[in-house]
Design a protein that fits this description.
Elements (H helix, E strand, L loop, with lengths): L4 H10 L4 H12 L3 H6 L7 H15 L4 H5 L1 E4 L2 E4 L12 H17 L6 E5 L5 H9 L4 E6 L2 H14 L4 E4 L11 E6 L30 H9 L4 E10 L5 H11 L2 E7 L5 E7 L3
Parallel strand pairs: 3-4, 3-6, 4-5, 6-7
Antiparallel strand pairs: 1-2, 7-9, 8-9
This protein binds glutamine.
């Protein structure tokens, strides 16, 4: 007799796959909700579903992020499509979005008719850009990425969510010659090339994770290019590694930014640093 869902969930646990992940894989394969899977674990699996689920289980046990297997990830209340071409959006990155919204609110209050230009550099799935565009629909949102495949995912997400997003191909500021923004944000790669942590992230694009010997190459490039692209009193907000707060504050200070501040994520880790461009 074919296996039941409960038996397959038990097998998943034996393979070291957390119950929640297994339930989500089953829901994805069966085209049901996780609630349905929980309520119907006596259901029998057809041969095709059983084979597909076993294959998914093997990939999950080998470390493929759940988001790639189900093709989706929730971020800041948005349901995003993700593929292996983009970094899986992380919950700690919501801090960057919330900080951007906090900086945008007074601009709106000061002049409800203005349409601030906001840019997300290295947008990947579009998570940050679309979360800001969703919560502050009165801004003009631009997103850049050096990866055409990533930009394609961002564009698909914008379409699915019906959020306007100007997608521009290129590295950091490079495709934005002559353009100025009221707010710029980025979750760039910031892991050092030799960091052993990278091994646990082997399924995600290295280009989105690693940035030179100290992990600061992309952050340095973004800070260096910012003055040419920021309007007076504009904000630059950057995500970085747990131990890079000092370095990013120094970079911003040396470039002439003011009101420099580092914020901590929900785990209490220094996660984002930003400053105001005096103009
Ligand atoms: N926060 C990610 C991690 O270390 C890295 C993301 C990034 O480099 N932007 O898991």
């Amino acid at each position: 007799m074919s296996a039941s869902l409960a038996q397959w969930l038990a097998l998943a646990q034996l393979r070291g796959v957390p119950r929640l992940d297994a339930q989500r894989l089953a829901a994805h394969q069966l085209g049901r909700t996780r609630e349905w899977v929980i309520a119907h674990d006596d259901a029998r699996l057809g041969a095709r579903d059983a084979a597909a689920l076993d294959a998914l289980l093997l990939r999950r046990a080998a470390g493929t992020p759940l988001a790639y297997l189900v093709g989706r990830r929730e971020f800041h209340g948005l349901d995003l499509v993700v593929s292996a071409d983009v970094l899986v959006p992380r919950p700690e990155t919501e801090l960057l979005v919330d900080w951007a919204l906090e900086r945008l609110a007074p601009m709106r209050a000061a002049d409800p008719t203005q349409v601030p230009d906001v840019v997300d550099l290295g947008t990947g799935s579009g998570a940050v850009a679309l979360a800001v565009a969703h919560a502050a629909p009165w801004v003009h949102m631009t997103a850049t990425d050096a990866s055409a495949a990533a930009l394609d995912v961002a564009g698909r997400n914008a379409m699915r969510l019906a959020l306007p997003l100007e997608c521009v191909a290129g590295n950091w500021w490079q495709p934005l010659a002559g353009r100025c923004f009221a707010l710029a944000l980025a979750n760039p790669p910031y892991v050092a090339h030799a960091d052993p942590h990278l091994q646990t992230l082997a399924h995600e694009p290295l280009q989105a994770l690693a940035a030179g010997p100290d992990g600061l190459d992309a952050l340095r490039c973004i800070v260096a290019g910012a003055p040419a692209h920021l309007a007076p009193a504009a904000w630059l907000l950057l995500e970085h590694g747990f131990d890079q707060g000092d370095a990013v504050r120094r970079l911003l200070g040396a470039a002439g930014f003011q009101s420099i501040e580092t914020r901590h994520d929900l785990a209490g880790v220094p996660r984002c640093t930003g400053g105001r461009w005096p103009g």
